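Entry 14. Ran structure prediction on the chain below.
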Amino acid sequence: MFTSLDLLVVVFMALAAVTLLSLSLLFLIRSKKVQRICFYIVSALGVYMAYVGIRIGFGMFPIQVSIGIAVALACIGAFVLERVSKGNEKMFLIARIISASALVLGLFNAVL
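Output, structure tokens:
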């Protein structure tokens, strides 16, 4: 039977697998429409990872909470940058890199 820590490890492994899959699709797919969809998924996962990091560290770990807030702000900033870019490929690439790095940082913040 699974204990609560076993289930937590399973959930974090699933989040890591989804993160790896979404990041690979974000940078390997050539279709612009699919790239935008993957970008929105990565941004939403980044905000969720920020929430998990804030929720885990709330009250006892202020550095973890501040990292979670920074991750959330980076994901929201990347989303705003993507919406403002209006077809500019360089700005969209910068938004994808910001969102991907925020997602990886949020995953490390939540796991470690």
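The first helix runs from residue 4 to 28. Will compare against last week's run tomorrow.
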